[in-house]
Amino acid sequence: MISKAIQKFEHAIQDAIDLLNHFDVLNTNPPPPQIEVLKRASLVMTLAALETYFEDLLIEASEAICSRSTEEVVLASFFKDSLTSDLKYFHTPSTDRVRPIFQKYLGIDITEGWAWNNIEPPAARTELNRLAKKRGDIAHRSLRPIDGQAQPQRHAVTRDDLRKHIHFIRQLVQATDVYVVTKL
């Protein structure tokens, strides 16, 4: 069984993939500097899809937990209201934000489920934190290439890196979904 949240994620991540595809269509040799924004936007959209996935998964899981106990309506209402309030401040899906909120509401460390192929939880946590920081840098500092600069600076997001980032996030979501669904 998979969550409804993962189905919504697969729909949302398509925006990031579409931006990457647009970049590929417009890319020539040498690449026009103005299309670099598509790669940066794609990374921002990738992390936004992940953030929304975590939020949707928490809501879905909390509703499942609350529906099991029909006698504790007041407690279930408080639980859902508290989660709604906490999600208003849940931004940038780094390990330091994801782990505590899942522990608080579901009683599990979802980062322990971040294992697949040759990736172990510590490596997945480190990579997610790195991507969250990169997304923050891009979203708040632009990191737009500077025209006329004598020494061209490295692009904030390369095409190959972006492809790997999207793949990593999709794998992370798959692992999370399996882990949470089996724990509930």
Principal-axis shape equals: elongated
Q: Percent range for helical residues?
A: over 70%
Biggest sheet features: none
Q: Count up the helices.
A: 6
**Rg result:** 19 Å
| Residue windows where pLDDT falls under 50 for at least 5 positions | none
Care to count the β-strands? 0
What integer is the average pLDDT?
A: 89
**Range of strand content:** under 5%
Structural class: mainly alpha
Order of helices and strands: HHHHHH
Tell me the count of domains. Answer: 1
Terminal CA distance: 11 Å
How would you portray this structure in words?
- By secondary structure, the chain is mostly helical.
- The protein has one domain (4-145, 153-183).
- The protein is built from 6 helices and no strands.
- It has helices at 4-26, 36-68, 73-87, 95-106, 121-141, 159-183.
- Helix 1 packs antiparallel against helix 6 (159-183) and helix 2 (36-68) packs parallel to helix 4.
- It starts with a helix and ends with a helix.
- The model has no long low-confidence stretch (mean pLDDT 89).
Short descriptors:
184 residues; mainly alpha; 6 helices; 70% helix
Write the layout of secondary structure elements.
Elements: H1 4-26, H2 36-68, H3 73-87, H4 95-106, H5 121-141, H6 159-183
Outline of this structure?
The chain has 184 residues and is an all-alpha fold. It contains six helices and no strands. The protein is elongated and about 65 Å long.
